[in-house]
Amino acid sequence: MPSRLRVPLGYVAGLVVLVLARPRPLLLAVGLAVAAVGEAVRVWASGHIEKARSLATGGPYAHSRNPLYFGSILMALGVAIASASPWVILALVVYLVAFYPSVVRSEAAYLMQKFPREYEEWSRTVPLFLPRLTPGGPRRSRFEWARVGMNKEWRTVLAVPAVALLLFLRSLL
Questions:
Q1: Per residue in 62-112, pLDDT tens?
Q2: In three state form, how does the secondary structure of the chain look?
Q3: Which partner from 60, 80, 133, 141 sits 20 to 30 angstroms from 37, CA to CA?
């Protein structure tokens, strides 16, 4: 599936979630907590990257080469839990499988081409996706709040409470 469709189809997936969700209070709370952890990982990662300028290897990038996607999957898991619907879980799994493997592969190829020496050193000790418990690799990048803003992570920060509110309102129907 072409990567350019990832965001537009993400909105479609969001609508599917709202239509099919059957949230209950306890699952809504648990799902929101999981989604919040995912967003925290994304904020941490966003504070380390300067897209196309340097290779981020510190912070969460010392645990996974794709912490932004790992955080997004935690957020999707949180939404799936909160939705209390097997159909939502299926829709989210289909969406994630359709886009994430190819995006992760293409970004790895791009980074390997752009930063060959640094990427080789980093990739030897840091897993592609699932995080390692202890940090590995060169750990050269440092967190900066300004990067979080430059990477427009505020959009996702606002999305977590917005989705929680929509699912809560859906639970009232």
A1: 999 999 999 999 999 999 999 999 999 999 999 999 999 999 999 999 999
A2: CCHHHHHHHHHHHHHHHHHHCCCCHHHHHHHHHHHHHHHHHHHHHHCCCCCCCCCCCCHHHHCCCCHHHHHHHHHHHHHHHHHCCHHHHHHHHHHHHHHHHHHHHHHHHHHHHHCHHHHHHHHHHCCCCCCCCCCCCCCCCCCCHHHHHHCCCHHHHHHHHHHHHHHHHHHCC
A3: 141
Instruction: Give me the CATH code for the 3-171 domain, please.
Output: 1.20.120
Q: Tell whether the model's pLDDT for residue 131 goes beyond 90.
A: yes
Between residues 67 and 52, the one the model is more confident about: 67
pLDDT score recorded for residue 7: 82
The confidence band for 4, taking pLDDT boundaries of 50, 70 and 90, is confident
Residues 6 or more apart from 148 whose CB is under 8 A from it?
A: 43, 46, 47, 154
